[in-house]
């Protein structure tokens, strides 16, 4: 019986050896696209920073990028030598972060690190404020000369953009949560000193955990 088993094993054809699929072949060779709208107030900054955006996307991520002037959109598409299909979404997130108001040097981290996200919310999501109350809340978030905003950014290792009543936070999941809690406390009326002391305690706890 053992001899028969050995005989049948020997009769089996050799295992086929397939070459690994290239990324552009995974979607049946179809080119994939992404389009990112350019808001009117980011048109001039995009012109100035175009080469800083273009170089990492085209050279490092191997993704084609162009500005469609008629549609006012930045268009991205995969190439035959794109190393990973996921690069397309990373580049779209990077361009979108720039459109939200983040600096190129901060937004480019989205291309290099996997665990980074952008979270957006509005002041009215936290508390319904109108008129001068809304203006004071925005003032509390920024602080004198942006002092409060910078303090939260440095303590939580995030980047924050305050665009009128919209707030955008770029960072890791845990850090975004800490920064968002601090910003919400400020919107609800907490004095900056109280928020700082709470922030110090939370960041110390986070540092111990990691």
TrEMBL record:
One of its GO terms (molecular function) is RNA binding. It comes from Punica granatum. The keyword Signal does not apply. Keywords: Nucleus, RNA-binding. Residues 1-24 are annotated as: Disordered. It is found in: Nucleus, Nucleolus. Gene3D superfamilies: K Homology domain, type 1. Belongs to the PNO1 family. It comes from the Eukaryota. The keyword Nucleus applies. Residues 115-188 form the K Homology domain. GO terms for cellular component: nucleolus. This is K Homology domain-containing protein. Its main location: nucleus.
């Amino acid at each position: 019986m053992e001899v028969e088993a050995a005989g049948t094993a020997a009769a089996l054809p050799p295992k086929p050896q397939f070459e690994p699929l290239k990324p552009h072949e995974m979607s049946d060779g179809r080119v994939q696209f992404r389009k990112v709208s350019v808001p009117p107030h980011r048109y001039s900054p995009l012109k100035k920073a175009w080469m800083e955006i273009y170089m990492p996307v085209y050279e490092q991520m191997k993704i084609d990028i162009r500005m469609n002037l008629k549609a006012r959109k930045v268009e991205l598409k995969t190439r035959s030598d794109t190393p990973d299909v996921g690069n397309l979404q990373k580049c779209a997130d990077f361009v979108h972060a720039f459109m939200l108001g983040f600096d190129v040097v901060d937004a480019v981290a989205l291309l290099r690190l996997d665990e980074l996200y952008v979270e957006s919310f509005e002041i009215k999501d936290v508390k319904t404020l109108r008129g001068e109350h809304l203006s004071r809340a925005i003032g509390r978030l920024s602080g004198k000369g942006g002092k409060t905003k910078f303090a939260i950014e440095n303590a939580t290792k995030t980047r924050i953009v305050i665009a009128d009543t919209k707030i955008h936070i770029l960072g890791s999941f845990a850090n975004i949560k800490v920064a968002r809690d601090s910003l919400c406390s400020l919107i609800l009326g907490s004095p900056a000193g109280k928020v700082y002391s709470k922030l110090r305690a939370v960041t110390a706890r986070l540092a111990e955990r990691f």
